[in-house]
Amino acid sequence: MIIELGHFALILALATTLIQATLPLLGARRRDAALMNVGPVAAVGTFALIAASFAALTSAYVRSDFSVLNVWQNSHSMMPLLYKFTGVWGNHEGSMMLWVLILAFFGALVAVFGRNLPHTLRANVLAVQGWIACAFLIFVLLTSNPFIRLYPAPLEGQDLNPILQDFGLAVHPPMLYLGYVGFSITFSFAIAALIDGRIDAAWARWVRPWALAAWTFLTLGIAMGSYWSYYELGWGGWWFWDPVENASFMPWLAGTALLHSALVMEKREALKIWTVLLAILTFSLSLLGTFLVRSGVLTSVHAFATDPRRGVFILGILILFIGGAFALFAWRAPTLRQGGLFSPISREGALVLNNLFLTTATATVLVGTLYPLALEALTGEKISVGPPFFNLTFAPLIVPLFVAVPFGPLLAWKRGDLLAAAERLYFAMGAALLVALAVVYFATGAPVLAALGIGLGVYLMIGALADLAMRSGLGRIDAGKTWHRFKGLPRSVFGTTLAHFGLGVSLIGIVCATAFSTEMITTMKPGDVKAVGGYEVRFDGMRSETGGGYRADVATFSALDGAGRVVSTVSSAKRFYFARQQPTTEAGIRTFGFSQLYISLGDPEDGGGRVVRLWWKSQVVMIWLGAVIMAAGGVVSLSDRRLRIGAPARRRSRTLARPVAEPGE
Amino acid sequence: MTRKQKRLAIVVCGMAFIATAVILVMFALSSDITFFRTPSDLLAERPGPSTHIRLGGLVEPGTVVRGKGTQVSFDVTDRKHSVKVVYDGILPDLFRAGQGVVAEGNFPTGSDVFVADTVLAKHDEKYMPKEVVDELKKNGEWYGDTSTAGDARTAEK
After folding, report:
1. pLDDT at residue A605, rounded to an integer
2. CB neighbours of B1 closer than 8 A, spacing ≥ 6?
3. Is the minimum CB–CB distance between A522 and chain B shorter than 8 Å?
4. Distance from the CA of B61 to the CA of which of A249, A649, A651, B156 falls in 20 to 30 A?
5. Which residues of chain B fall short of a pLDDT of 50?
6. In Å, what is the CA distance from A60 to each residue of A6, A83, A105?
7. Residue A658 has what pLDDT?
8. A302 to chain B: which residues are within 8 Å by CB?
9. Average confidence (pLDDT) over A581-608
10. Distance CA A276, CA A268 (A)
11. Is B152–A233 a contact, with Cβ atoms under 8 angstroms apart?
């Protein structure tokens, strides 16, 4: 009964999205407040209905109601409660439910927090949200309905894919979707602005927090996905330039560009058309990601099921929204009034450079991701584009950007002084050089490129702090005043610093993990000792274990320091899940500082030995730590007073009153 | 600078970026892509030792031989022809005789044995690499239905 109610709620939600998609739009055209006010009500109603529907599905999972096809296919009564719960989105239908739930959630947020938006803008934004929700609800109901019953009901479920029976499933998809789908808001704002034919600094001020929030979630989602695959799949890789990874990385790159260009628009009323284009592009890439992952054109851990109808349907949605958005853009963008100009050497100039780098980098990733699909469709030739392609194209485009990052915040708006900015970075550059030399000196045989990479990371980290030091007047005025100024700095400045600092941390992690990690595949018998990354690893023995739905061979290892003392024990296992007759590798991981000892287990050998794979992952934790710091920067920036208390009207009149300057003439 | 010059500067800068990206992409695409081949393809045309390919098919039952340490050899078949593959490393969890597999690697000079540096297998009992399914279907050697669920890989250097 609950299932039928859930199904019914979803159909009702489709009806409310239809209302949300049409009436507010009509109201905005006719300046009819009553019609426009339907928008928020419909948006909140849609969210409530989809939430109810989602709750119904969740209850079926928690109760292990195998009379529901979707539950039967992806759950098992023996699973721990957490996995029964997260298993809801551990399959195609459920994950699409999560997608629309989050979409409706964002729509409701706009409805609730958008009170200070101009009425027509809010109405249009909610209408566009309504279109997207409508399209995806039809998709769910027609091709991916999770509420289909099974008769007679089987006694036991087919179990969730063991790979997904992990805490990562509780975090990674919701975070990623909050990011992916969060960009639908900036998209809706862009489309609404194009419909209105009016766009100003206030628009950028409303859009930026949404972009920032989505970006923050996406950053965490990608980092979590990377860490999850690192520890769960047992092959120690944290990024493979897999098309599915790229699918989430492209909106991130474009979203990062959007954050920066929205800044220019908010402060200087420049780059309007470009910002609108980026907002459209970012969500288009999110949609493309959804298509790549959900349609089954790619094979990966994420492609749960292949049904050609689904692929065609999502492709249809993709073409409709992206094509429609670009057509609208081409038609309306020329009517948008262009804003202020600036000298090439200025904060704006630096942000434009940032955008050029990020969008070209996005384009190369896009080419690498779609080229194999296009080639197969056109010629039937099957190829794959792997890490070498991306290392060759993406790296040369992103490294110069890293060099430029610390300069940006140090340049003044309108017209900056490159030399003065460089002077403030002398310390960062010097420190970077010293570190690079130290790496070459101490880590004998270290590749020069790795030393330079670490130096670049240090330069990014210190360069990010240089902005704080400069703003608080460190070294120029007395300490008390500096502290006072430091405390008074806007939160957004700290946000920028944290984000750029985190970038440096991640870079160092990436470089070290790539250059200084060691790997050994060997056969070990109990008592055998191998040297790994400055520690001795002893194989202590094997034992058997059973858990929720699996039995496991667990190997225990001890890590010994130079003096032969046991500093840590590690257990690494191979599990065998009964329901799916499927083995998984549970890597044993111990963290030492920022580095990790990573042990994964292979097959038994004749004579009692065991194939073991031992890695020393140098500074690998910094990769994800950096991402977390970046996300923290996003959160801090979101808490900025400027964004919390929207005073857009005042701001707008001020920017309008300011004469459009023509610096540099 | 005038308004026009500034706009020009940005446009020129943008063009330079695009040109750089295009050159990099063209260069990378000409060297860093991997072609997919079936055992029959390889019989018809043997690639040189410098060509990195993905060999896809089924693991022929009864051919998996574990050697010393982590060495393993097996035959990959498309039910018409088969190719012997050697690999040094840990096989994916779901590597099994009779099931789909993709091996990445090359043929060393003068050798008929395919040396794999990476072996990809499935992440689910129902899964088979998509390329393999397509090839089997094309050759009329497809007997069962599958549903896709993922690919596990072990990467070897």
Report:
1. 76
2. A343, A344, A664, A665, B9
3. yes
4. B156
5. 123-127, 145-157
6. 10, 13, 22
7. 39
8. 150
9. 86
10. 15
11. yes
Q: What is the CA radius of gyration of chain A?
A: 27
Per the prediction, chain A carries an average pLDDT of 88
Residue with tokens 């073991």: A612
- Convert the pLDDT of each residue in A14-35 to its tens digit: 999 999 999 999 999 999 999 9
Q: Which residues does chain B have within 8 Å of residue A382's beta carbon, measured at their own beta carbons?
A: 35-36, 54, 131, 134
Distances (CA, A) of A424 to A418, A427, A434, A472: 10, 7, 17, 13
- Dig out the tokens for A5 from the structure: 């109610």
Q: How far apart are CA A21 and CA A38, in angstroms?
A: 10
Model pTM score: 0.90
Q: Indicate which of B29, B45, B135 best probes the interface with A, i.e. most A CBs within 10 Å of its own CB.
A: B29
Identify the residue with better confidence: B46 or A75: A75
Test B69 with A611 for CB contact under 8 angstroms. Answer: yes
B70 CB within 8 Å of a chain A CB: yes
Q: Per-residue pLDDT for A555 more than 80?
A: yes
Measure B110 CA to nearest chain A CA, in Å: 24
Burial (CB count within 10 angstroms: exposed 0-12, middle 13-18, buried 19+), residue A315: middle
- Amino acid at the residue A605: E
For A162-174, what is the mean pLDDT? 89
The pair of three-digit structure tokens given for residue A92, joined into one six-digit string: 């195609």
Whether A303 and B89 lie within 8 Å, measured CB to CB: no
Residue A493 confidence (pLDDT) above 50 = yes
- Please calculate the CA angle A635-A639-A643 and round it to the nearest 5 degrees: 120
Task: Examine residue A152 and say whether the peptide bond preceding it is cis (omega within 30 degrees of 0).
Answer: yes
Contacts of B89 in chain A (CB under 8 A): 521
